[in-house]
Amino acid sequence: MKESKWKTLFEIFAISTKLGLTSFGGPIAHLGYFHEEYIRRRKWLNEKSYADLVALCHFLPGPASSQAGIGIGLMRGGILGGLCAFIGFTFPSAIALMIFALILKELHIVDAGWIHGLKIVAAVVVAHAVIGMAQKLTPDRGRKAIALGALVVTLLWQHAFSQVVVMLLAAFIGFLLYKKVEEDTQTSLQVPISTRFAASCLLLFFGLLLFLPLLKVWTSSYWIGLFDSFYRSGSLVFGGGHVVLPLLEQEFVPTGMLTEKEFLAGYGAAQAVPGPLFTFASYIGAVMNGWAGGFVATCAIFLPAILLIFGTLPFWGKLRSNSKINGALMGIQAAVVGILIAAFYDPIWISSINRPIDFAFAAILFSMLAYWKIAPWIIVLTGAIGGLFL
């Protein structure tokens, strides 16, 4: 490999690591950080290319901000550039949450008052996400109706596959309602990978989604089962890290692999670290199986995002220009809002807001976050300290 190639890869890794250590505030904030660093300061992409990339990442399942970072690394340094961008942005928060999980287990502090404060923080963050996403993704009556239907079905039919069924129905309804909606869909992305490699990534994505559950049954391997659980969760999440909450909760809490207190404590802690919220999986894996579990969980939940961004970027221009596909995606995005509201109620609300004082404290934290625009890490610290007194 030429020296200039190594220099490019090191630059991608260094910049993405800096962003992984400093990007607080969730996926929308992350995209703002990316725009400032990659587009305005370094001019690695032009504005149109970045807008097209962000649009694709919002249409794919998985963590949108992580996929955008991977896409930028891919267009800057090829496949290795995409992987360097992923590692740099992801592993600071993943390691921090694994350390938190090990401390939590070692010191048995899951019932501490500050943990209750983190649960209230989780409720505040999800409430804020619900409002923002609803305004953007359900602007008309049709999409509001799709969101309402998704909310009702998800709450009343709590099954491992309920989200999948809701997404498929929403895609069909969106196709019927919005297939004639036309948008400006010209793309200017230049992707340095072949369509053959991209197709191989998509084939691997669907192959793992199909055969991992079968392999788990055939081998009865705990580690294959663990990998399958996180891979499936990462494959079926539209809307980012907040929507992965109900999938992971249904996957691990009812089975007894993780207590509800441990689950919500980790979700609250995930708000305190920079980087993608999907690294919440790192915490869950570490709670169950230490460093090894955390590493497997991290790789498994992000692998679908990597395969999908590698697999779809070369084809995005044609997909983006198809109004029928856009209509289906509009329905899916509306369903995300309903699923998120369901997650806000169960398990977050019913497990964290137990008394009037809890609600009052949550209202203060929400105002700090939504209206006073205070940094998320300050919200988390305030929640933890307030939980000690509550």
Automatic annotation (TrEMBL):
InterPro entries: Chr_Tranpt_l_chain, Chromate_transpt. It is a multi-pass membrane protein. It is found in: Cell membrane. The keyword Protein transport does not apply. It comes from the Bacteria. It holds the Pfam family Chromate_transp. Its main location: membrane. Keywords: Cell membrane, Membrane, Transmembrane, Transmembrane helix. The chain crosses the membrane at residues 12-34, 79-102, 114-134, 146-177, 197-218, 230-248, 291-316, 328-350, 370-389. Belongs to the chromate ion transporter (CHR) (TC 2.A.51) family. This is Chromate efflux transporter. It comes from Aeribacillus composti.
